[in-house]
Fold:
Amino acid sequence: MAKRKYGGRPNRAAKSPASGRDRSAGSPTPPGRDAERTSHDPTLLFGRHAVMAALGNPRRTVRALTGSAETAAELAEVVAALPETRRQALPVPRTATAEEIVALVGEGAVHQGLVARVDPLPDTALEEVLDAAGPQALLMVLDQVTDPHNLGAVLRSAAAFGADAVIVQDRHTPQVTAVVAKTASGALDVTPLVRVINLARALRSVQEAGFWCVGLAEEGPVALDTLDLSGRAALVMGAEGDGLRRLTRETCDQLVHLPTRAPIRSLNVSAAAAIALHHAAVAPGRKVG
Structure:
């Protein structure tokens, strides 16, 4: 029988055609070089959802705000609808040409005519999340998911299905950059991202707070869709390719598998996370939307 792993291989960004030549070297410019550089910038947000979510988040400091001629009216309308204290904390939006925006975000970046220069969000401690957790709280835990696109996609699903936080191990998880924020589609400013040093220790703290920790693993003896995930629940997902580490598996209260079928039994970690989050979100007593 083929083994199930959650998740599969990391997503890979599509390569764009070479956009020019490097004059100093006399060779073609590497495809997407500018966008690749800006994708690692932790102070840059671009794209409609990422920028609009940052504007509405009082915990987010926005240093500069740029829109195209096409998005200027919508941007002004969104800012005008914010509470006065929030409006006063925001910079005056600047209207820029398409070329100026590309200069900010890099060739090939999907900016949708909106760019913001921001401060990184302040850290959220695990204790804060646990202290604020209600009786139907839902957590997503990632065990060394290393691909920034996967991290962003899981954050987006967590926000969509009402998770209270996403918990990650700091050392082997991507930092929050422009590419994570763009993939998260605004979720970074909606769902707290909690970074911990020791994941097994963090899981034990989560359990002590009354959460049932459910790990998705190929050896899980029961199918996810047979469980009642009402009450406080934490879903634990493993790294791309390797799945959950041994200590993480042993710390979970229950291991489960997704009821997939041959010939395709494995799913990308972000896809598996979305399925698990949906199952938890529709559990009795928990409301989404």
Remarks:
- DSSP finds eleven helices and 13 strands in the chain.
- The domain at 126-281 is CATH 3.40.1280.10 (Alpha/beta knot).
- The chain has a mean pLDDT of 86.
